[in-house]
């Protein structure tokens, strides 16, 4: 039985805990005495505890993030009741910025802040030898990248077949955008490119085809970006899928040439636009050339097959409802396949927290700590934007309403869709668990009653979209239309017969 268990709770099964694999890879002589266990936030805490206790470990380390802190808190509460002698060690972003710590910190025996590849094994060696450090908080030690053992061999064959494979060609970020924890980094540091590509070749030969790069700025170093893209260009397959986070205003010609060679369905670019407002960009220390951003997004849509997932953040200090709407409209006009409307979250340690008082940033005290109100956007309007984001995913991002969406947004995308969202919520009192057929029926109702789109136009567009859904049963408004059409056809046939 292992003496050490490292664990976390993933948001979904398809996700893998990349940080745990790094930790496991760098346990040194303790690796054979360490077990890596992953769970999901949907699992019952008591069942997770039962599986953890089956390992009979002396130390359990948890990776704590904004999306799992509540669930891990429940797990640890049970562990402390039934196995109080087990030493609990926490790590991860949610517990790395003392004194700004969540209540789960009180239940831990030790906390490793920041990077754990060196500090966590050292702590475990001390604890297993009988020495208990007096300081509860252990500062994580930064390791040189070329000294780290590779995490990639610790993806299992099941991971490769069924789950996302996270990889990183560089670590850190040179930018200082205050809403992001990467702003605390000094710079971006690349891994050795040849060594990294050798690891990718091994994963590819093992069958990996879904690679998600977690580099904050994949296109920062163009030479490396082009080399990585060319590596995958020589290994194109029908099931290859590559996800990159890119900065929107850096797309030199060499990079464009590489991108343009990929067929549809391979590249997805997550493009953090966040806001087009120069005053807000300055306030939150975000350097972004808006003209280059617009030009690059336009080029990507016109001359590449990359799928663009563009991000905006609502609730930034100084932003207003109208201001956010202006950014949304500008981004919508650039026609990315997806617009992710994110709600500002309070990340512990993020520099944006310096604006909390001046801009009256008020956050939900429960994770994921979403912004509730600001000096310039009321609680009510932020709730409206939150619902807007959810309905936009269902209508705008899903691809299921390709013919209908232009009728909904017309010439005022944000204003019209906010009106649509408000009316849809008034009918449903919910943004979740809306069946597809019901969603089409509700959309028809809002289009005709609130947006005053003629029933004929709404019906034609929705029928075209619904026919592509594969659903067999027809929405009520289409059944009614079919009945009316049949009745009219019957009257016409009767008249023809009488005329004869």
TrEMBL record:
InterPro entries: BchE-like, Cobalamin-bd, Cobalamin-bd_sf, DUF4080, Elp3/MiaA/NifB-like_rSAM, rSAM, rSAM_horseshoe, rSAM_sf. Gene3D superfamilies: Cobalamin-binding domain (3.40.50.280), tm_1862 like domain (3.80.30.20). The keyword Cytoplasm does not apply. Residues 159-389 form the Radical SAM core domain. Keywords: Iron, Iron-sulfur, Metal-binding, S-adenosyl-L-methionine. Residues 2-134 form the B12-binding domain. Its cofactor is [4Fe-4S] cluster. This is DUF4080 domain-containing protein. It comes from Methylomonas fluvii.
């Amino acid at each position: 039985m292992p003496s050490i268990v490292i664990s976390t709770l993933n948001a979904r099964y398809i996700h893998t805990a990349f940080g745990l694999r790094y930790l496991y890879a760098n346990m040194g002589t303790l690796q054979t005495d360490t077990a890596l266990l992953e769970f999901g936030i949907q699992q019952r805490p008591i069942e997770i505890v039962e599986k953890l206790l089956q390992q009979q470990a002396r130390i359990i380390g948890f990776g704590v993030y904004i999306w799992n802190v509540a669930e891990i808190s429940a797990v640890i509460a049970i562990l402390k009741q039934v196995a109080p002698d087990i030493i609990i060690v926490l790590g991860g972003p949610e517990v790395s910025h003392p004194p700004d710590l969540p209540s789960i910190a009180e239940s831990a025996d030790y906390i490793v802040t920041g990077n754990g590849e060196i500090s966590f094994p050292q702590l475990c060696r001390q604890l297993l030898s009988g020495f208990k450090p007096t300081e509860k908080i252990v500062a994580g030690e930064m390791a040189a990248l070329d000294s780290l053992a590779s995490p990639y061999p610790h993806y299992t064959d099941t991971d490769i077949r069924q789950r996302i494979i996270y990889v990183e060609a560089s670590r850190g970020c040179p930018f200082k955008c205050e809403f992001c924890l990467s702003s605390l980094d000094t710079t971006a540091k690349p891994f050795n490119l040849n060594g990294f590509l050798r690891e990718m070749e091994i994963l590819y030969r093992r069958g990996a085809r879904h690679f998600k790069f977690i580099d904050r700025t994949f296109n920062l170093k163009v030479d490396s970006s082009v080399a990585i893209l060319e590596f995958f260009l020589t290994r194109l397959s029908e099931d290859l899928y590559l996800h990159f986070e890119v900065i929107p205003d850096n797309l030199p010609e060499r990079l464009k040439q590489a991108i343009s060679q990929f067929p549809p369905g391979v590249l997805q670019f997550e493009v953090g636009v966040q806001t087009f407002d120069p005053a807000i960009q300055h306030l939150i220390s975000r350097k972004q050339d808006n003209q280059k951003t617009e030009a690059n997004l336009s080029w990507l849509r016109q001359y590449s097959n990359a799928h663009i997932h563009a991000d905006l953040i609502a609730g930034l200090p100084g932003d207003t409802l109208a201001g956010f709407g202006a950014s949304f409209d500008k981004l919508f006009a650039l026609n990315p396949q997806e617009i992710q409307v994110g709600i500002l979250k309070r990340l512990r340690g993020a520099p944006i927290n310096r604006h909390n008082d001046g801009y009256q940033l008020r956050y939900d005290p429960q994770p994921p700590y979403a912004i509730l109100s600001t000096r310039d956007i009321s609680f009510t309007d932020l709730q409206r934007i939150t619902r807007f984001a959810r309905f936009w995913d269902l209508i705008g991002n899903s691809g299921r309403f390709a013919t209908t969406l232009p009728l909904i947004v017309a010439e005022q995308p944000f204003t019209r869709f906010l009106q649509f969202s408000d009316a849809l919520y008034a009918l449903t009192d919910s943004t979740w668990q809306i069946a597809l057929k019901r969603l089409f029926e509700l959309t028809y109702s809002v289009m005709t009653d609130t947006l005053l789109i003629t029933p004929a136009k709404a019906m034609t567009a929705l029928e075209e979209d619904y026919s592509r859904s594969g659903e067999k049963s027809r929405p009520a408004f289409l059944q009614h239309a079919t009945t009316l059409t049949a009745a009219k056809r019957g009257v016409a046939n009767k008249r023809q017969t009488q005329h004869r």
